[in-house]
Design brief:
The protein is an alpha/beta fold. The strands form 3 sheets. It has a 6-stranded parallel beta sheet with strand order 9-8-7-10-11-12, sandwiched between helices. Helix 1 packs across helix 16 and helix 4 packs parallel to helix 5.
């Protein structure tokens, strides 16, 4: 999604630009020749990645060969640090400047790896306000451009029309379930989320948006006969839902932008948790809590993630009252913090992708001026 937004912003400024690399349906639709499909790199966890290493390494080699063949003027890497810092290193060896858009969350763990950005990255474009200082203090040329989701408009479809489209009861409260975007992640998180949904009474309808990286049949197999409505997009579901049960990640930011109160949940394999927990350098897991600097939404992680605790937390924020009001105020504050900074000389606030595109093109022009 971020890659597609950026391609569109760059193309508006220079329609002659061409793009190739790693991506999915949205980047292809935006005009990127995806020589590697992002779905093939969708693995989460320390131990889980081991069995996928040969395939991932083969895709990495293929991408580098394509770069050698096409000789790009600039490389833009987005998130996925385990894969992308290696790509950045190869580009740097070839004299190709590298921009990191959506920089790695090295502030959360493995802070020593910031040196990789210093060595291989010409410019880091960060999407969380606290990241600019973190990276600049460690010698990385970083600029906060705003979060790509911060300016998302609420979907235009009315609640009754949405209900008719997906055979929902508009008189009931709806709860959006978002178990993750990777197969392993969903297998670890969805069963407990479904158990929590089963414990809530029949006054609720449950919506499960299908992530672009997942297959409908795979989700339906996990759901079985339980009454869960699969929908194609997350934002309309969140916008019209009373609450959400959402795994840690970008989905929590989407919920905040839609001002949908939610409970954050997450579980990884016991070995991954055992290996990863001592390395975590932050006190909170939910991105909205990290941005706010306090607990805006409850976090149920690993052993605390049980159906009973999910139900208890959801029941606190479903009715009108102090708990729901506090969360809504916190989500509004988070949205404000994620908005891009104002343009120089009090110009209009730009979309993060537009701000990123301008910085990228300035870097490219400066390189050409220097005769590189």
């Amino acid at each position: 999604m971020y890659g597609a937004q950026l391609i569109e912003a760059l193309r508006r400024r220079d329609p002659k630009l061409e793009f190739f690399g790693v991506g999915g349906d949205r980047m292809r639709a935006a005009g990127c020749d995806t020589v590697v499909d992002a779905k093939d790199l969708s693995v989460v966890g320390i131990t889980e990645i081991l069995s996928h290493l040969p395939k991932i390494y083969g895709l990495y080699r293929h991408l580098i060969k394509e770069a050698d063949k096409r000789k790009p003027d600039l490389a833009i890497v987005i998130d996925s640090p385990a894969f992308n810092w290696r790509v950045a290193r190869q580009m740097k060896k070839r004299g190709i400047p590298v921009v990191y858009y959506v920089a790695p969350q090295f502030w959360a763990w493995r802070q020593g790896r910031v040196r990789l950005l210093r060595e291989y990255i010409d410019k880091a474009l960060v999407i969380f306000p606290f990241e600019e200082k973190f990276y600049r203090d460690r010698g990385v040329d970083a600029t906060f451009v705003g979060h790509p989701l911060a300016e998302l408009p609420h979907p235009a479809i009315e609640r009754n029309d949405y209900a008719a489209q997906f055979h929902l009861d508009p008189a009931k409260y709806w709860i959006t379930l978002m178990p993750g975007s990777r197969v392993k992640e969903v297998r670890m998180n969805l069963p407990t989320i479904l158990e929590a949904a089963a414990q809530l009474d029949a006054n609720y309808e449950f919506l499960l948006p299908i992530a672009p990286t997942l297959d409908r049949a795979f989700l339906q197999d996990l759901i079985g006969e339980q009454s869960i409505t699969l929908v194609p997009e997350s934002l309309p579901a969140l916008s019209h839902s009373r609450a959400g049960i959402i795994t840690s990640g970008t989905a929590t930011v989407e919920a905040a932008m839609m001002r949908t109160p939610f409970v954050m949940v997450y579980r990884v394999s016991p070995l991954t948790y055992l290996l990863g927990k001592p390395r975590v350098k932050v006190a909170r897991f939910a991105m909205v809590n990290l941005i706010a600097g306090e607990e805006v939404v409850p976090e149920l992680v690993q052993h605390d993630f049980t159906a009973e605790r999910v139900v208890a937390q959801i029941k606190e924020i479903l009715p009108d009252g102090a708990a729901r009001d506090r969360m809504l105020e916190g989500l509004t504050r988070v949205k404000t913090l994620l908005r891009p900074p104002q343009s120089p000389v009090d110009g209009p606030v730009q979309h993060p992708a537009d701000r990123a595109a301008e910085i990228i093109l300035q870097l490219s022009r400066a390189r050409k001026t220097d005769g590189q």
